[in-house]
Design brief:
CATH architecture of the largest domain: Orthogonal Bundle
Number of strands: 0
InterPro entries: Lysozyme-like_dom_sf, Transglyc_AS, Transglycosylase_SLT_dom_1
Largest sheet: none
Strand content: under 5%
GO biological process, one term: peptidoglycan metabolic process
Order of helices and strands: HHHHHHHH
Keywords: Membrane, Transmembrane, Transmembrane helix
Number of domains: 2
Family: Belongs to the transglycosylase Slt family.
Protein name: Soluble lytic murein transglycosylase
Length: 192
Amino acid sequence: MKRKSRSRYKGLLIFLVFILAVVFAVNSIGYILKYMYPIKYSQYVERYSDEYGLDRNLVYSIIKAESGFNPNAVSVRNAKGLMQIMDSTGEWAAEKMNIENFESGMLLEPETNIRIGCWYIARLLNQYDSNVELALTAYNAGSGNVSKWLKNTDISSNGKTLDRIPFEETENYVKKIKRYNYVYKKLYDGQK
């Protein structure tokens, strides 16, 4: 009889430990995902995504893909800051946006970088009739390439969307942003 009681007690104890481990794991997943998909610089992302009519999750996804939230990031092509803006794009955008006394070093300032990046992605979305995939493709490969590809019937059968993205790096970039955006929406929609 004592053995049966001990066996039941051990079984119950193992079951309780298992349940606690499952509860801990489920709760930890949310924390781990939020650590991996942060919403840093939210005051700027919220301000400028709202100003330019952008989905905040998309902006966070671009920042995560472009710089991993490192405001001092500089690519091998000399793109700078959180949203990896090229000097020439920054100068052109600053002129269009009436940012006075702009210098390329300002692209390393989080607010300036996010402001210009949001303005630019909004401009691309407008240029491509709110087609996020085309805007992201242009953000990475340049709008000149996208315009050329849309005219090429081997790449675009309808002249409005791309059947394929000729640059593997850009194709992977667009897929990455879409994945990140999906996770950001799942983690944060309804919490803002």
